Amino acid sequence: MMFDITGKRFRFFLISGVVILIGVISLSSFGRLRAGIEFSSGSMMTVSFEQEVAHDELRQELAGLGYTDAIVQGTEGGNFYIRTDKLSEEEKAELTNALTAKFGSLEEMEFYSVSPMVATETFWNTLWACLAAAIGVLLYVTWAFRRMPKPFHYGTCAIIALVHDALVVLGIFSILGGILDWEINLMFITGILAVIGYSVNNTVVIFDRIRENLSRGLSSNFEVVVNNSLVETIGRSLNTSLTTLIVVLALLLFVGASIQNFAVVLLIGIIAGTYSSICIAPQLLLIWEKGEWGRFLPWLPQPAVKAKGG
Amino acid sequence: MARRNIIALVIILVLFGLSLWTVLPTKGENFLGMRLGLDLVGGVHLVYQAQFPEGATGEEKAGDMDRALETIKRRIDKYGVTEPVIHGEGGERIVVQLPGFTDIEAAKKLVEQTGFLEFRHVELNEEGSPVYLSDYLENTRTEFFDEEVAGTRLFVDNDDNPVVFLDKDGAGNLSFTDGTGNSIDLDEVKRRAEEILGEDVPGSWALLSWIPARGDDGTQLTGDLLDKAAPGVIEKATGSEYQIDIEWNEEGGIIFDQIAKRIYESGSYGTPQRSLGIFLDSVLISSPQILESEYQGKGSITGNFTMDEVTRLANLLTSGALPMPLEKPPLYEEKVSATLGADFIDMSLMAGLIGIILVMLFMIVYYRLPGLLASLALIFYGVLVLAVFKLWPGGGVTLTLAGLGGFILSIGMAVDANVLIFERMKEESRTGRTFGAAIEAGFNRAWTAIRDSNVTTFIVCGILYWLGSSIVASAPVMGFALTLFIGVAVSMFTAIVVTRTLLRLFVGTRLAKRRSLFTVYSGKK
Q1: Which overall architecture, per CATH, does domain A6-35+118-296 show?
Q2: Of the candidates B4, B50, B109, B38, which has an alpha carbon nearest to the alpha carbon of residue B341?
Q3: B104 interaction partners in chain A (CB closer than 8 Å)
Q4: Which residues, in sequence order, are CB contacts of B409 under 8 Å at separation 6+?
Q5: Local structure of residue B328 (DSSP, 8 states)
Q6: Mutation target among B415, B452, B482, B520 for the A interface, most CBs of A within 10 A
Q7: Topology of domain B2-29+337-517, per CATH?
Q8: Which of B221, B294, B448, B477 could form a disulfide with B468 if both were Cys (CB 3.0 to 4.6 A apart)?
């Protein structure tokens, strides 16, 4: 008995396409990716009130003080996260005094203030880091599979899978951003980069099996080789993802708000990464090998399918 | 083979014991004695941009930076913050991290404050000659020599640093202090005086009695009354001469002329009584001679100065103790309260514990005996990673919330190598291999996949670490990169070496034949 995974490849692309499309629609309409103060500068504080304070009242009070753009989020334990434009020392003191006058004594649990200069720097360095990660992965995968007939194919497919994961995470996050005011902060980026590493890790394990099966001369049909490799590794792929998801869920449930961006990115990213390492990267490899790219563009005249490689 | 395996087991157990011994907390340590980041213990993190004068060379900037860091360190040490981190970054930024110190406004004042700049002159006795510390020590005086000028007498050593202060206590008696209100007994003062006199510096002005320079109405001349101080150059036939041009504000100009007149008339050029002592935080930074009896608000400090010295002095006079002003507000401010930090630790511990238990349960249920052994390896993994954190070069890894997140994440990823191997063992045993052969084949065949796949994680960790080192609010990123890297590296060891050693113990035993202990054998065919 043999599962036919590769035969469903175009269905897999359709599923990914739909998820990414939803993300793109969200990005261009109701959803949004709001940059955290690390990237856009500003101040944020977490305050803990002695008395119970209603979310709406706090928001109104802040609006009344002139902070109409302030983001207010309730976090666990009755604390509130308040994000504003960059506060000067005097503005901060005024704000704290006004809130104390209105809601009673409060404790400032956290305070962060980032200047525009630092924010710009952080933004660009983060962009470079993400680019460097992608290029590093491309080079490494190409190098690791250098003895294969087309090492560059392996690298490129791994990168496409990685971009796929990033797009899925961004899309879903934009929906969360639209509904819950979540931000793209440094922890988010850290999570994205961790997901990149994780997703490629899975992809490499499957590619490694394809490499091994090719060198053992399992079959002259590349599709059979890829399918067999997937069937052989699918248990490992799912189990490893499961153990990782277990700890990520533990992080999300027990550590909570302070790293929720990070944990949620990992959660979405690990699922997307597992999917892409099985359903995207190796399938693209197969499509490339078979010269089936034209099938993504059905309105173009279909080239004769050439039997290649194997 | 069996013998070698026993030796491996012994080594592993010894390593485990050593790690456990490293990790277990000694009395009074919090959280296993790990070094904790600001977000966990609470504290303040500030980053300042230094404003160097235009055209300053790299060397000058580096020198100024060192002095500025020294000064800030001194101030913070006085406050008694434990293990403050104060360092320069990129040559133009100053990073101040104060663990456990959560008053961010006070911290900012401490760093930004301009030192206390005051002007003094030498005390004279009835005959009009300068008074030294020894004059006060002989015959134990009960009154100041110059009763007309009230206030602390300050004595400095040959390096111009304060030695001792002499003041009147509440009862009107003279008493020696350290400047912050603690009294110093007479024997100690005598010992210090002898030590300094023993240095035998020719023409030494050490231990002169410096008294506050006051205007006729008693107002002391301080840095507040100074309007401007800038480096100046006078071109002479003999070459360039450097000086500091100063300008007083209105009140300062009047007071200064009253003081200058007195000093000018008190002695001849070159004598101590003709000099004006400029003190910054009680350190004598310059003692120029008064050349005229009237300055009308403006003056210059001349001397055998180099350009460097002039710039530095001018900066000291305007910006206080720091060689260059710091841009305000800081580029980056962070404050985390101690309670929030403590919560983070508890929550992370909980998450880690629950995570590790669930992963172990999964491994045992799914892989049976090998899963149990992998779980033992996972416990070893946890302890070994914590030991590595503690022994990491540079005083251990500084654990942050993100770092703990990376560690917890790595628990889930740590069993990956085991999963790879066990799945491989299943396949190998399906081809009819014996238990022992399946173990060896499983480990050998899985190795390339483990190696190649973990390299990608290392690449990402490397990039994250670079990102962390290149940006200001770097703690989360760097902490995560480092703990994930250590975690994955250690997991390669524990999942492979430890699990294999434990599994080999069962080769050839009766247990190895009990199929129900190994889903390995009950695999679908």
Answers
A1: Up-down Bundle (1.20)
A2: B38
A3: 111
A4: A194, A244, A247, A248, A251, A266, B484, B487
A5: S
A6: B452
A7: Multidrug efflux transporter AcrB transmembrane fold (1.20.1640)
A8: B477
Contact residues for A285 (Cβ-Cβ < 8 A; gap 6+): A153, A154, A157, A207, A210, A226
Give tens-digit pLDDT for B216-234: 888 888 877 888 888 888 8
CA of A198 to nearest chain B CA: how many angstroms apart?
7
Q: Please give the angle made by the CA atoms of B296, B298 and B302, to the nearest 5 degrees.
A: 125
- In the CATH hierarchy, which fold is given to the domain comprising B43-113+327-334? Alpha-Beta Plaits (3.30.70)
Q: Which stretch of DSSP H or E encloses residue B242?
A: strand B239-248
State yes or no: ipTM above 0.90.
no
Any idea which fold A42-114 has? Alpha-Beta Plaits (3.30.70)
10 Å CB burial of residue B170 (0-12, 13-18, 19+) is exposed
Sign of CA dihedral B212, B218, B224, B228: negative
Q: Which of A161-170, B194-203, B290-299, B326-335 has the highest mean pLDDT?
A: A161-170
> Could you tell me the CA-to-CA distances from B21 to B15, B49, B93, B503 in Å, in that order?
10, 44, 40, 26
Q: For residue A88, which residues of chain B lie inside 8 Å, CB to CB? A: 329
Query: Is A98 within 8 Å of chain B by CB?
Result: no
3-class secondary-structure state, position B126: coil
| Tokens found for residue A231 | 């069937």
Min Cα separation B488/chain A (Å): 11
Domain boundaries defined on chain B: 2-29+337-517, 43-113+327-334, 117-319
pLDDT tens digit sequence for B15-32: 999 999 888 876 666 667
Domains of chain A, by residue range, sit at 6-35+118-296, 42-114
Residue A232, CB-side half-sphere exposure with 13 Å CA sphere: 25
CA distance B386 to B378: 12
Q: Distance (Å, rounded) from C-alpha A59 to C-alpha A79?
A: 14
Q: Give one DSSP letter per residue of B265-285, joined into a string.
A: HHS-TTSGGGBPEEEETTEEE
The SS3 assignment for A306 reads coil
On average, the pLDDT of chain A sits at 87
Write down the pTM of the prediction: 0.75
Query: Would the CA dihedral through B144, B150, B152, B153 be positive or negative?
Result: negative
Q: Is the predicted pLDDT of residue A227 greater than 80, yes or no?
A: yes
| Paired strand residues for B47 | B95, B332
